[in-house]
Specification:
Length: 350
């Protein structure tokens, strides 16, 4: 038990150093290739930059570095706990669950970021980043106007003019040749709709974007996100209040896995940003890229999930029982599942 804890703490320290180097050093070196001044970035709207892709990635790297700060604090917190007794009382559980909640929030946000940068790989031109940012700006203005009207009974004219200006710019981009069918960031990829100024823009859901990312993502990205929507966004339930939860299935060791989850998401985001920019800075970025490109394990795992390993009528070993394969199905995403008949006792009867 002591050896197990010692090994875990050693892995924690090494993993923490690796993930922090990605978040701080690699992300910083990649940010420097953008040639964006911090002061200007804070004053110029993202969509007004000559290349809005760079301002978009600048913000993406912000999230990676925020995650690095979190990982550093989580590692310090867990290392501080190493001298505590083996007892696990109420306050110990609360501390670990608080840490798990923090990890779930950060992982959820990074999952959103990773899915977006994956989706942009098919629309990696300046006009689509600018269109995405303009529509987001219109959404903010529209919501502000609606709140003003609902709660205070007025609509600020300056905000209405702002919405008109955004409409003008969006229509001009469409006239210049923007392919509206590629607007994956909308629930329905349509040309500009006047109702967006009053009812808001209907953006695509995370689920829609996640499904799209499955066809565009690298094996490492799919592995970091999870092989289904529940895996990718399942942490959502963990950051909302759930009075039914009794902590019976809570494992304090999960906080160590939570650090890996957040760290691997950071790794995947940095690699995808390199691909979008077509830039690999010398040093740590080059080392990470070599490590990423030479790792065939994620592709092998994904391939196994999509490969039929048995046939109907075969006998297999499942969870300690002998079973007969009765049916084989393959989902539209390529994942294989089996209908099994237990030869002895059904799992529900155990």
């Amino acid at each position: 038990m002591l050896a197990d804890k010692s090994d875990r703490l050693k892995d924690l320290e090494l993993g923490g150093q690796f993930y922090c180097s990605i978040a701080f050093k690699a992300a910083s070196d990649l940010r420097n290739t953008l040639h964006i001044d911090e002061q200007a970035f804070r004053q110029i709207a993202p969509g007004l930059w000559k290349d809005p892709r760079e301002s978009f990635i600048y913000r993406v790297l912000d999230e990676v570095q925020k995650a690095g700060i979190c990982i550093h604090e989580w590692v310090e917190k867990l290392e501080d706990d190493k001298e505590k007794s083996k007892s696990f009382d109420h306050l110990d559980r609360l501390a670990k669950q608080w840490l798990s909640d923090e990890q779930s929030f950060r992982a959820r946000k990074l999952a959103e970021v990773l899915v977006e940068v994956i989706c942009f790989s098919a629309t990696n031109e300046a006009e689509y980043y600018r269109d995405y940012l303009r529509l987001g700006e219109l959404q903010t203005v529209s919501r502000s106007l609606n709140d003003q009207n609902e709660f205070f009974g007025f609509r600020r004219r300056n905000s209405e003019y702002h919405a008109d200006w955004i409409e003008r710019d969006i229509l001009a981009a469409e006239k210049a040749g923007l392919d509206v069918s590629k607007r994956w960031y909308l629930k329905e990829p349509l040309p500009f709709q006047s109702k967006w100024k009053t009812r808001g823009v209907q953006f695509s859901s995370f689920r829609q974007r996640y499904i799209r990312s499955l066809g565009l993502g690298l094996p490492t990205e799919v592995a970091a996100l999870g092989k289904s929507y529940v895996h990718a966004y399942g942490m959502s339930a963990e950051i909302h209040f759930t009075p039914q939860e009794i902590s019976s299935d809570f494992d304090p060791k999960d906080v160590y896995l939570g650090i890996d989850r957040v760290g691997l998401l950071c790794f995947a985001i940095v690699i995808r940003c390199q691909l979008l920019l077509d830039v690999i800075p010398e040093g740590l970025n080059a080392e990470l890229r070599k490590m990423h490109d030479g790792n065939a394990r994620p592709a092998d795992i994904l391939n196994q999930l999509k490969t039929e390993k048995a046939k109907v009528g075969d006998f297999v070993w499942a969870n300690g029982d002998i079973c007969e394969v009765m049916e084989i199905k393959k989902s539209k995403y390529g994942y294989v599942s089996y209908l099994l008949r237990y030869m002895n006792v059904r799992p529900s009867q155990k």
